[in-house]
Design a protein that fits this description.
- About 25% of the residues lie in helices and about 30% in strands.
- The mean pLDDT is about 95.
- The protein contains nine helices and 19 strands.
- About 50% of the residues are buried.
- It has helices spanning about 20-30, 70-85, 115-125, 135-140, 165-175, 220-225, 230, 305-320, 365-380; strands at about 10-15, 35-40, 55, 90, 95-100, 130-135, 150-155, 160, 180-185, 190-195, 195-200, 205-215, 235-245, 255-260, 270, 280-285, 320-335, 345, 350-355.
- It has two domains: about 10-50 and about 165-230 and about 340-395, FAD/NAD(P)-binding domain, CATH 3.50.50.60; about 95-160 and about 235-335, 2-Layer Sandwich (D-Amino Acid Oxidase, Chain A, domain 2), CATH 3.30.9.10.
- The strands form three sheets. Strands 1, 2, 9, 10, 11, 12, 18 and 19 form an eight-stranded mixed beta sheet that branches. The chain has an eight-stranded mixed beta sheet with strand order 6-7-5-14-15-16-13-17.
- By secondary structure, it is of the alpha+beta class.
- The longest helix is centred in the N-terminal third of the chain and has 18 residues, at about 70-85.
């Protein structure tokens, strides 16, 4: 699109084609909306928040009852996509959350005791699960070096991990098949709303739309300015893959995805994934409080010392058979809100612009449900899932 060309006219423009944007684009296109998707890179890519090969999922999310319907609906949509594309997007290894009562700990995503909250959500929403005491955990999972006598495990058998790059690729291509236009390698520079029309200035020209969905992740705060520039922080997270003595104990048949609260300190919890390809290694990761930074000046690559330190602190003391040998490491961007919740709401000054996310590092498992809900708002005037808990007004 030449900068001197006439503006592109469309009904809806989706800005950012990561987890949220790809889903919204697909759901809008399959509803017959004339929709255009724009991304500054070529999705799926490793420059934002939707990469790394795997993303943990479960339906009984400990963050609270507002999130559960989105996660449950996302699992239903994944089954629909798997049937449509003939591919696997969700590996049902099960998801295991382990810990002891955490009455004095810092809340995680709003939950004082994340394990107890997860169990509560499963019971409230009728989600299949199993509770394991410390002896059962020791007997079933010899991959874990030690459990406290007070530990218990929440096991959700129909959960596991999503394949983020594959899901994004399928939804972008699915949207294209349903008639969506897609512009990649295109930077959105400015968004305005004039006389009820959304005007989007890009590096390749201008787009006019009736509605816009901004799912730009870490780029949201600079693109939209007030109040997002003061509300959102961007942090850098590291991901680590290690060699193992034998990968059999870490296969999806033998080990679930796990979230392990090793002590009562949040800095001691970490997440691990089963291995489907030994060449990729055993993936281990944890959310850590890191300083806000300007990712647009460049995201620092993962350093070898970080992966060595993560092994020394977390993996080596707690996992049996995972070696310190590093196969790979990477970084991921988290775009965070003050309460670590989502933002899914109209822009306060542009009522034709829906802002989707930030997702504070725990959004991917909900993304398919969110994309559908946003498409319903635009196409039908309302969504079947209540989005009011993610209103921007709670910060203003």
């Amino acid at each position: 699109m030449s900068s001197n060309a006439s503006p592109i006219e469309t009904d809806v423009v989706v800005i950012g084609l990561g987890a949220m944007g790809a889903s919204a684009l697909y759901q809008l296109a399959r509803r017959g909306e004339r929709v255009l998707g724009i991304d500054r890179f070529v999705p799926p890519h490793a420059n934002g928040s939707s990469h790394g090969g795997t993303r943990v999922t479960r339906e009984a999310v400990g963050e609270g009852p507002a999130y559960v319907p989105l996660a449950m609906r996302s699992h239903e949509i994944i089954a629909e996509l798997e049937a449509e594309f003939g591919r696997t997007f969700l590996v049902k290894s099960g998801t295991l959350i382990v810990g002891s009562p955490m009455t004095g700990a810092t809340p995680l995503h709003g939950a004082q005791d994340f394990l107890a909250s997860s169990i509560e959500m499963a019971e409230r929403f009728g989600i299949e699960h199993e509770i394991l005491d410390a002896d059962a955990l020791r007997a079933r999972y010899p991959q874990f070096r030690k459990f406290r006598d007070t530990d218990r495990g929440y096991l959700e058998p129909n959960a596991g991990y999503m394949l983020p790059e594959a899901l994004i690729e399928a939804q972008v291509e699915g949207a294209r098949a349903h008639g969506a236009q897609i512009l990649t390698g295109t930077t959105v520079e400015k968004i305005d709303q004039i006389d009820g029309k959304v005007i989007v200035e890009t590096s390749g020209g201008t787009v006019h739309a009736k509605r816009a969905v901004v799912a730009a992740g870490a780029w949201t705060r600079r693109l939209l300015g007030v109040p997002f520039d003061r509300l959102l922080t961007v942090t850098r997270q590291t991901i680590h893959w290690y060699d193992a003595d034998d990968f059999t104990p870490f296969s999806p048949e033998n080990m679930p995805v796990f979230i392990w609260f090793v002590t009562d300190r949040l800095e001691d919890y970490f997440t691990g994934f089963p291995v489907t390809d030994p060449g990729e290694g055993v993936k281990m990761v944890a959310s850590r409080d890191t300083p806000d930074f300007d990712h647009e000046q460049g995201t620092p690559a993962a350093e070898r010392w970080e992966t060595e330190d993560f092994y020394t602190r977390h993996v080596g003391p707690n996992m049996v058979g995972v070696k310190p040998d590093i196969i790979n490491n990477a970084t991921c961007l988290y775009t965070n809100t003050p309460d670590n919740g989502f933002i899914i709401d109209n822009h306060p000054e542009m009522d034709k612009v829906i802002v989707v996310s930030a997702c504070s590092g725990h959004g991917f498992k909900h993304s398919l449900g969110i994309g559908e809900a946003v498409a319903e708002v635009i196409h039908d005037g309302r969504s079947r899932i209540d989005l009011s808990p993610f209103n921007l007004a709670r910060y203003l």
